[in-house]
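4.2 Preliminary Data

To establish feasibility before requesting continued support, the project team ran the inverse folding procedure on a target of 512 residues. The structure was first converted into the token representation described in Section 3, and no sequence information of any kind was made available to the design step. The complete token record follows.
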């Protein structure tokens, strides 16, 4: 029996383990040798056995320092840790042994257990919004939309949502990648339950753009603090909402029926503040694309001062956050700048896994004022890719998003960026791609890339001007901006003294 620690979703890459055999505990590491995963004892033993039992149920308790400064040990740091629990007969030499079975779990070890916010269940009710007998297509990526009209009680009076939880159809946990609930600001003629390709019969769903709730693999329920609730219903609230479900059907299975969705717990007893969700990060666009063969390719989406100036004058208070990317995301965080100086971070995960995208509550509330800058950075790894990874909606595409949960609600729904189109086209022209009829991704494919040119592209991404999506709840750009939110200079920012990192060369680990 062993417990393995590693990054991301690769079971064996950069893996440290503690293995329990014959009432002894060994510290070791895994080596990939051709097609075998060989188990090696570590030179320095850092797993310490506390207790064990070998009856009908075998178990053991052990301790290990978070940081051992051993190049063969995994450094347990803030962020996601991937646990692999394996069981076999005796002490196998390799994990390819037919007797070995394993399971994976994710957790964040270095986080405080915050006391749960109380939920007064008196005068509460719940609403379930879910897919109705959805026949999931045998395609890798499908977005499924379901619209629901609120009942007369919710239409009559404003309520506050105080808890949101995902309901995943048992057996479909592998299939549902993420879900969102949107408010539709305009009336819808009839309910809809089908593919949201936004064509023909589903075209009208484009107006459903205000995010009410978001969930991704690994996230638990979101409970709102006692001083805030998500506004829902009432005479000024159009009574239509939509659930959008991203199905990730990697094996292209057919015949799958799904009824996943959300349960919303709400109350008529209004709290002092209206809460909201805002999207930070990169625009879903092929302007934000990642070359193949990169070990650490960073891209940053800006929420610039022109957009945060539309926050309430007293600022907003962020109480939770959910980081989100697809398969190549490795490190994600949002930096908070004031007057150009970094004053902190709004969530960080240096060991991100797309299979466990937890909603993280903050111990201390984060206050953001008008004029502040919020920079969301995602670091991608594409070493096993031979083709470009485009920014977009498909699971093989990439995203870089931080959903922030905050109060009081502002008029800003989305604050995201991409490299400015005109700046990008000038870049392509400098490398001989001058056909203006080509789409952006076609221009990427036309360039003859080299390491030198990748460095120029990285410079463009980190210093080039921006196109901004500073969007209101209707999904429209705020009007009357001096450049219509295009060709905006990237904010000038400086890192303040705010954190201490592990010195990699003085304190090495297997996951460096």
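Position-by-position output of the design step:
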């Amino acid at each position: 029996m062993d417990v393995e620690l590693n990054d991301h979703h690769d079971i064996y890459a950069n893996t440290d383990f503690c293995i329990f055999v014959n009432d002894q505990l060994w510290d070791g590491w895994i080596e990939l040798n051709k097609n075998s995963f060989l188990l090696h004892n570590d030179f320095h033993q850092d797993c310490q056995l506390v207790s064990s039992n070998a009856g009908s149920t075998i178990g053991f308790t052990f301790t290990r320092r978070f940081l051992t400064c051993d190049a063969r040990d995994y450094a347990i740091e803030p962020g996601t840790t991937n646990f692999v629990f394996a069981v076999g007969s005796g002490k196998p030499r390799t994990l390819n042994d037919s007797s070995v079975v394993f399971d994976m779990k994710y957790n964040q070890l270095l986080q405080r257990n915050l006391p749960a916010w109380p939920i007064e269940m008196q005068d509460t009710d719940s609403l379930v919004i879910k897919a109705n007998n959805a026949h999931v297509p045998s395609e890798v990526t499908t977005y499924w939309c379901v619209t629901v009209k609120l009942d007369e009680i919710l239409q009559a009076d404003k309520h506050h949502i105080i808890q949101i939880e995902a309901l995943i159809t048992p057996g479909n946990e592998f299939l549902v990648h993420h879900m969102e609930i949107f408010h539709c600001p305009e009336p819808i003629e009839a309910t809809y339950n089908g593919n949201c390709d936004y064509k023909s019969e589903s075209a009208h769903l484009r107006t459903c753009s205000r995010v009410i709730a978001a969930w991704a693999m690994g996230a638990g329920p979101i409970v709102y603090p006692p001083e805030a609730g998500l506004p829902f219903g009432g005479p000024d609230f159009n009574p239509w909402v939509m659930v959008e479900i991203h199905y990730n059907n990697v094996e292209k299975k057919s015949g799958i029926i799904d009824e996943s969705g959300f349960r919303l717990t709400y109350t008529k007893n209004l709290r002092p503040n209206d809460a909201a969700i805002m999207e930070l990060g990169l625009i879903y666009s092929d302007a934000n694309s990642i070359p193949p063969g990169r070990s650490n390719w960073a891209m940053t989406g800006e929420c610039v001062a022109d957009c945060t100036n539309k926050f309430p004058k007293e600022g907003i208070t962020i109480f939770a956050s959910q980081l989100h990317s697809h398969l190549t995301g490795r490190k994600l965080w949002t930096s908070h700048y004031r007057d150009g100086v970094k004053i902190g971070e709004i969530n960080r995960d240096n060991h991100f896994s797309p299979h466990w995208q937890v909603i993280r509550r903050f111990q201390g509330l984060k206050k953001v004022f008008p004029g502040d800058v919020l920079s969301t950075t995602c670091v991608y790894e594409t070493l096993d890719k031979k083709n470009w990874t485009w920014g977009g909606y498909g699971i093989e595409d990439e995203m870089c998003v931080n959903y922030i949960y905050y109060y009081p609600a502002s008029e800003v729904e989305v604050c995201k960026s991409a490299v400015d189109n005109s700046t990008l086209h000038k870049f392509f022209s400098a490398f001989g791609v001058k056909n203006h009829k080509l789409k952006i991704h076609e221009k990427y494919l036309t360039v003859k890339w080299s390491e030198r040119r990748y460095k120029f592209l990285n410079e463009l991404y980190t210093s080039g001007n921006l196109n901004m999506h500073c969007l209101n709840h209707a999904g429209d750009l705020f009007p009357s901006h001096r450049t219509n939110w295009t060709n905006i200079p990237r904010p000038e920012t400086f890192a303040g003294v705010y954190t201490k990192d592990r010195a990699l060369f003085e304190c090495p680990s297997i996951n460096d």
